[in-house]
Design brief:
Blueprint lengths: L1 E6 L15 H13 L4 E6 L13 E4 L8 H6 L1 H14 L7 E5 L1 H14 L3 E4 L4 H4 L3 H16 L2 E4 L2 H11 L6 E3 L21 E6 L10 H11 L4 E6 L7 H14 L6 E5 L3 H9 L3 E4 L8 H8 L4 E3 L15 E3 L7 H12 L1 H13 L6 H15 L1
Parallel strand pairs: 1-2, 1-4, 2-3, 4-5, 5-6, 6-7, 8-9, 8-11, 9-10, 11-12, 12-13
């Protein structure tokens, strides 16, 4: 089968936490690797010459759009990008396409135009939503476009029950059009270290692009909570500033850390590739996830696959991933409360109980497989071709 994936917003080869690289980059990379084993897969994306990710695609077509281009410029460049790299390649037969899979709303706009011009069906995965960011002039335009894309799409793929309800309630899309396919986890990269032993200084990991909606500033609140309990810790942030205000937010985050006297207890690791992230997760006592809204939250599953429990504020899709005191904990805030206090005492101070939670964390990821994701996704493609 001839499949075209469009990932205009960010390259699937981008390292985690750099520019806009995150769960979506991993999703496209892993899914296309699986699909290309028995199908012809072409990926039209933005260039990332600094990537060290292995390229296993049969076909990978790069645009010449600078990966560091701001979102406003990316939006303004949509028309020229479509004409030069998408429409032209299909029109002259350079790419033979039976179905298109668009990732993120910008790619969805391109896929919608392809459907109008060539009657090619398309599948849409949003990965994120304008409503997660907050309402302003630019997000209002994005939200309107997201709805138009979803109305035009033949099938929408969601990663959780939460996402299905979110799409239906907020965009007015019929649930029958939305199919749930869980993302996978790469077991060759994310696996537990059976020799893991904790130390007196507890290692806390926070993974994500550094921007306000990822909530890194709330981690300082958690550090204060640990200090009150008398727990020695060191927090490692994975990721780099992202978005138009990312650098400003990063400066504010560092200043907040200094003001609270935690400079010696924090390390910024920058962006990591998947192998490096796996190594960090295996040696971590706890993954801290401070973003309140995620359509799925792939890093939580990757952490669990390494045997690392997850503490999260997310009240959406994470409810379907994290089970309290089994593979992590959901908490409404990082303030001192009995529920959070008991969990922290278990995973950081009680070695025997912590070992059991690490074991159950790993076991909770058995249903997540990129092979299954690929099989379920190709089934949808075949229904449309």
């Amino acid at each position: 089968m001839n499949i075209l994936h469009i990932s205009y917003h960010t390259s699937p080869l981008t390292s985690l936490g750099r520019n806009d690289g995150g769960g979506m980059s991993t999703y496209v990379h892993e899914l296309c690797n699986v699909l290309s084993k028995s199908n012809k897969v072409t990926v039209i994306t933005s260039d990332d010459s600094e990537s060290d990710k292995k390229n296993d695609y049969r076909n990978l077509v790069y645009s010449k759009l600078d990966q560091n281009t701001e979102m406003k410029t990316k939006v303004n460049n949509l028309d020229s990008f479509y004409k030069e790299y998408v429409h032209s390649d299909i029109n002259d037969g350079s790419i033979d396409v039976e179905v298109v899979h668009a990732h993120y709303w910008l790619s969805g706009i391109l896929a919608k135009r392809l459907k109008q011009d060539f009657s090619i069906p398309f599948v849409y995965s949003s990965h994120s939503y304008g409503l997660f960011v907050g309402m302003n002039k630019s997000t209002k335009f994005r939200i309107e476009q997201e709805r138009e894309v979803m109305l035009s799409a033949d099938v929408i793929i969601a990663s959780s029950d939460f996402e299905v309800k979110f799409i239906s309630d907020n965009y007015g899309i019929d649930k029958s059009k939305i199919k749930i396919i869980y993302p996978g986890v790469n077991s060759k990269i994310f696996f537990p270290d059976i020799s893991f032993t904790t130390s007196n200084v507890k290692k806390i990991l926070c993974v994500g692009r550094i921007q306000e909606q990822k909530g890194q500033h709330k981690v300082v609140e958690f550090m204060s909570f640990l200090s009150c309990l008398g727990i020695n810790f060191h927090v490692y942030f994975v990721g780099e500033p992202s978005g138009e205000k990312g650098s400003l937010y990063f400066d504010e985050l560092k200043e907040l850390i200094i003001q609270n006297n935690y400079s010696e207890s924090v390390t910024f690791l920058g962006s990591l590739n998947q192998e490096q992230l796996g190594q960090e997760l295996r040696s971590t006592d706890l993954l801290l996830h401070a973003a309140e809204f995620e359509s799925f939250g792939l890093v939580a599953v990757e952490a669990n696959a390494c045997g690392t429990p997850v503490l999260t504020l997310n009240d959406g899709s994470f409810r379907e991933i994290v089970r309290d005191n089994i593979n992590g904990l959901f908490t409404e805030n990082f303030n001192n409360n009995d529920k959070l206090n008991n969990f922290i005492n278990t995973v950081l101070l009680d070695k025997e109980k912590a070992s059991l939670i690490r074991e159950s964390s790993y076991e909770s990821t058995e249903k997540y497989s990129w092979g299954k994701t690929g099989v379920n996704t190709i089934s949808i493609y075949e229904q449309l071709s």
